[in-house]
Amino acid sequence: MNGYNSLKTDKRLFDKIKALNGISGIYAIIGKETWRSYVGQSIDVGIRLYTHFLDLFNNKHINAELQLDFNKFGSIVFDVELLEITNNHLELGQLEEK
Question: Where does the chain have alpha helices with state H?
């Protein structure tokens, strides 16, 4: 099963990510088992999170600790949160540093 189909089988996560399409801001991916998190920024949070989870399902994520947690516990223990919304794309870097 490829990453896209795997992500679609986790309806809770898929729906949360889909709801963030078109929103610009700061987001977090949180592993609820270890409480490790990954914070990022994007002009389209939904698309960026979708890409993160495709990489995780395909065992190709750039963040090794996140990938290890994902491989060990699966998508069920992961959640996503929108930390801040902004329409000013120049602000994204400053907001991510907070």
Answer: 3-9, 11-19, 45-57, 64-73, 92-97
